[in-house]
Structures are given as C-alpha cells and as structure tokens.
Amino acid sequence: MEKKAVIISFVILILLAVAGSTAGIYYYFQYKTLVARTNDPNIAVRDLLAKVGKLIDLPTGEQPTVATVQNPDLIKSQPFFAKAKKDDRVILYPNARLAILYDEQANKIINFGTINVGSATPSATVAPTKAIPAP
Question: Each residue of 15-44: pLDDT tens digit?
Fold first, then answer.
C-alpha cells in the first residue's frame, strides 16, 4: 500500500512539474513578444498596416507616418476627423498623398482622403474625397 502511495505522489509531482514548466515557457514567450514590440515600434506599425491592408490597398514603396488620436475634441472641427474617437489611428502616406483614419477596435476605416502637401509649408491639409456639387 505504501509503495502505491509513493508512485501516485511521484506521478502527481511529475505532472505538476510539466504543467509548471509549460506555463513558464508560455509566459516567457509572451514576455519576449511584449519586450520586442516595446523596443521596436515598427513591429506595431507593421501589424497595423497588415490589418488596414486587408481592408484597402495601401501604397507600396513608402513608409507611412502613423499617429494616434489622443484628444478628438481638438480636431472634430476638421471634416476629415469629424467621426474620430480616442485611440483611432491616422495613417499618412505623403508621397502617395493618402490619409486614412482607422478604428483599430472595430477594424474599420472611418475616413480616407487625399492630402495636399505644400512645398512652402511643412504642414499638411486633408482634402475631402467626396465631390462638392457645383452651384
């Protein structure tokens, strides 16, 4: 009887060791992924562009500028940002003259349009994509 109890205890200890090792390995790789994303912001941008690229054809041969909407109340007056919410992403392709407003939580493009970059000023304005009817 005592030999049977020792064997059962040994099997339970082995199962606990395997379960603990498996959990440790899993969380180690989760940690490494998090550290890599924190140290290299390009990984997060690549992931974002992969999501947006499934919804719309993105320009190639150009690295976009990506920004996050922090305070939508400050930009709501601009037509392009009328439906912007906190944490929406703005993706700008200056050479392709394309701006995209993307809601990452809903995986939805909120707005897109062309940007007009003037050579005299470093700022950019977003032009609406809808045609305005003639008077």
Answer: 999 999 999 999 999 999 888 777 777 888
Side chain identity, residue 94: P
Give the start-end residues of each E strand in 42-96: 65-68, 89-93
Cα-based distances in Å from 20 to 14, 15, 23? 10, 8, 5
Report the chain's terminal Cα–Cα distance, integer Å.
98
> What parts of the chain have a pLDDT lower than 50?
120-125, 127-135
Instruction: Enter the DSSP assignment of 98.
Output: E
Distances (CA, A) of 123 to 40, 77, 96, 103, 117: 27, 17, 16, 24, 7
Amino acid at 89: R
User: Whole-model pTM above 0.85?
Assistant: no
The C-alpha atoms of residue 43 and residue 38 are separated, in whole angstroms, by 9
Listed in sequence order, the residues at least 6 apart from 69 whose beta carbon sits closer than 8 Å to its beta carbon are 75, 81, 84, 85, 86, 87, 88, 89, 90
Phi, psi of 59 (to 5 degrees): -60, 150
The residue extents of the domains of the chain are 1-39, 42-127
